[in-house]
Predict the 3D structure of the following.
Amino acid sequence: MSGSINKVILVGNLGRDPDVRAMQNGDKVVQLSIATSDRWKDKNTGEQRERTEWHRVVIFNEPVGKIAEQYLKKGSTVYIEGQLQTRKWTDQQSGQEKYTTEIVLQRFKGELTLLGSRNNSDNLSDNSNNNNNNQSSEESKNVDNILNSPDMIDDDIPF
């Protein structure tokens, strides 16, 4: 089929902190575990039901990976846009071939948007180790100072 599209869009919450690994060539790969939930009212019993689906996301896009590594924590809400990809691998214990389907953000493709309030992300960064704490808090304050400065006037926007 010549007009096919492979695009996945997810809005969900991280089930754990991002897992950052280095490939043999030195490039970083970031893995995320994202939960999405469906909620509905059972017609027979009238009670609320919920089903959670877990998605494996792999980021090969270096700038997006850096953002994920720096700002995402367990519980963060994110918008992800990528491609569905299935890879084959061999289980080292059993020797069996297995398949894994993942949402992949390739180099120069894909999108990651952090959702939620700035205060929420500041609280999440407070739970990380102290070295990253001071740096990210200062960066957040600098961004806030720039955005709230009198030099940032909406009149300069041409639309």
Q: What stands out?
A: The domain at 1-116 is CATH 2.40.50.140 (OB fold (Dihydrolipoamide Acetyltransferase, E2P)). The chain is about 25% helix and 40% strand. Helices lie at 62-71, 118-126, 130-148.
